[in-house]
Amino acid sequence: MSMVTPNSKRVLISAYACAPDRGAEPGVGWNLVAYLAGHYHYNVTVITRTKHQSAIEGSRDPRMKGVHWIYVDPPEWLSRRKRGAWGLKAFYLLWQKQMHAAASEYLKENQVDLVHHLTFGSILPATSLVGFGLPLVVGPVGGAEMSPPELIGDLSLRLWIRDRLRTVLYWFGSRLEATKRTYENCSIALGATEASAASLSKLGARDVRLVPQSGCGNDEVAAFAAAHPNTDKAPTGPIRLLSASRLVHWKGVDLTIDAVARAVDAGFDVELDILQEGPEMNSLQKLVKKHGLEKRINFLGKLESLEGVYRAMRAVDAVIHPAVNEAFGQSVLEALALGRQVICLDWAGPGMIVTPDCGIKVETGNRQKIVEGLASAIEVMGERRDHWREIQRAAVERAEVFSWSSVAQELDQAYQDSLEQKAG
Questions:
Q1: Is there a contact between 323 and 368 (Cβ–Cβ < 8 Å)?
Q2: Structural domains in the chain, sorted by start
Q3: Which tens digits make up the pLDDT trace of 363-422?
Q4: What is d(CA 14, CA 34) in angstroms, rounded to the nearest whole number?
Q5: Are 319 and 342 spatial neighbours (Cβ–Cβ below 8 Å)?
Q6: Which residues have a Cβ under 8 Å from the Cβ of 157 and sit 6 or more positions away?
Q7: What is the distance between the alpha carbons of residues 76 and 81, in angstroms, rounded to a whole number?
Q8: 0.70 surpassed by pTM
Q9: How far apart are CA 389 and CA 398, in angstroms?
């Protein structure tokens, strides 16, 4: 295979979410662009949101020195109306329209060898970058991960409607001509999970590769871990848990609350801190009150800094994250990188990341089975303190498998292969 000289190649990247010191999807965009530009020396231009401009331009990350940025956003009043998952998707469609216009203007004056849809990291809506006739790399993307089928029938009517609507919209979106045109004509599509990789193949992508959607190392988590080394001293007192995800129904925070209630009823001393905000906040607070757990479960909201999140992770026995259709799970990886075990479902992204050495994966099923499994995992946390040092070490080692450098290496290979396909 002939090798393409990286620093001679110009890449235009669409990265809706891309910002330093943010974690989650903005961190995905930032860290992968940093590796592509700083390590592989591609000549990178990134189209991202105007809201990220001040953070990007205030960064001193030397890897970003040669990156060119284009900022676009719909009108500010639309940003204020962006609510929930559906509002976010609608807003993203408007943003993508502006991104396409900006890309078109840029390409009139600048030569580009390859385009890459990086974030929004979802199969749908499909990127419009395919329309420029250049080699196109998509991903890593998720979105084809659906809820465990046995659980669906146990959802409340409101959540059942949301879950079924998501499935129907994915089915409909997958059959749009624009979607098929994108994936049939992209050079390489990167799926974050086996479910999404399979969906990309069904959509007509010819070269589909399984690549994790996120990573760690040489980033904010690593900096915190280096400044605050783990100790071998195991926790004492109550079993302490942390939920660190947006309060949307598919993150499974309600399953966590029910499992804590079950463990408490069985005589275990358990405390749970819930971070973040979201549309399920009121429903979750009512569920806590129903169980009489107001003194054991605390809603801490959205913390001001990533350092605050990392300190909260370090203060617990485990991060609990029973998401039912998660493409990856950045909080899972962050917890492992900080030496904290994870309780999750053996399903989708988190199920791919966590191993028995660094956490507990609960078998899926109906709601009762899942809650019982989560409660059983909580109840053995005290016993696992006897193996605290080994679990910490295993968690850190597992996180290292999912490094930014390894994801960036996959992207570099995808770039090279796409360019060679064009040359051939």
A1: no
A2: 6-215+403-423 (3.40.50.2000), 220-401 (3.40.50.2000)
A3: 999 999 999 999 999 999 999 999 999 999 999 999 999 999 999 999 999 999 999 987
A4: 14
A5: yes
A6: none
A7: 9
A8: yes
A9: 14
